[in-house]
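Thread: "does anyone have the structure for this chain?"

Original post by V.I.:
We have the sequence but no experimental structure in hand. Need at least a predicted one for the grant figures.
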Amino acid sequence: MRTIITVAALVLMSFLYSCRHKANEPVPAASMTVLQPVANQVFKHGDVIKISGTINGLETMHGYRVYIIGNDGDSLCCIKNHTHANTITIDESWVDSSSATTANIIISSAINHEGDEVKKVVPIKFE
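Reply from O.Q.:
Generated one for you, tokens below.
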């Protein structure tokens, strides 16, 4: 009985250890290109803001998230897309109804299940 418990414990520990992200393992390469909007682009309140670009990875990417954060720190928008592919096309739009004077569009994509990501921040302005 004791042998069975020891073997089960060893199997469990090796399983748990194998699922952990090891610090010496390289993070998979990935890149992101944001085509629209360009940094510091000026919009009027009520404009449709097109958000487009591509995310490329050597391994399968795990979708993307778009956050739009106003100058006062308020979240103006959150868009989630859960697509699995080596190349992901970003094609979103948002209509501003805020009173913010500036905002940051933050686009991020998970490279793996360990929390590594590729991220771009695009500042925009409103008049």
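V.I.: this helps a lot. The two ends are 75 Å apart (CA to CA).
O.Q.: and Strands lie at 30-36, 41-43, 48-70, 75-95, 102-110, 117-126.
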